[in-house]
Amino acid sequence: NQNTFSSASPRSREPIQKQRVAVVPTAGASSAPVGRKPRLASGSQFLSVNLLGLLEYGLGGLGLFLFARLFWPLPTWRSLALIMAGLGVVVWFALGMMGDPQQAEWRGGWQRLAEISLFGGMLWIVRQAGQKSRTI
Asked: How far apart are CA 79 and CA 104, in angstroms?
């Protein structure tokens, strides 16, 4: 019930609006070739793919932290907030590893870890929020 969720958190509509910010970089990065190495791509392609990835994972991790900050004050939602913050750390860690030249061979793996943490985590969070809102 949407009204129950809204009454549980008066600012609950705010994160939904912030989540929309991640749609544009996510859509762009998902259409870009995965795991391209600099020597295989043109300079502009390499720059655009990396920029889209930086936006996707950087803003996605930030979004998870903002969700966590929003829900932390609510005792019922505190465990969910901890999980969101943890997933944000994983996304940013994977982003940092993708930028490490020594991790070039593993870049695709780091991308998958970041995507699973970001998108799988968001789906799980939405599901948990739906279940919690029914019990409140």
From this structure: 35
**CB < 8 Å & 24+ apart, contacts of 99-104:** 104/37
Of 24, 44, 45, the C-alpha closest to 34 is 45
Q: Are 95 and 18 in contact (CB under 8 A)?
A: no
> 26: part of which helix (H) or strand (E)?
helix 23-30
pLDDT tens for 70-116 read 989 989 889 889 999 999 999 999 999 998 889 989 999 999 999 99
- Residue 122 is encoded by which pair of tokens? 């968001």
Q: Could you tell me the sign of the dihedral formed by the alpha carbons of 39, 41, 42, 43, in that order?
A: negative
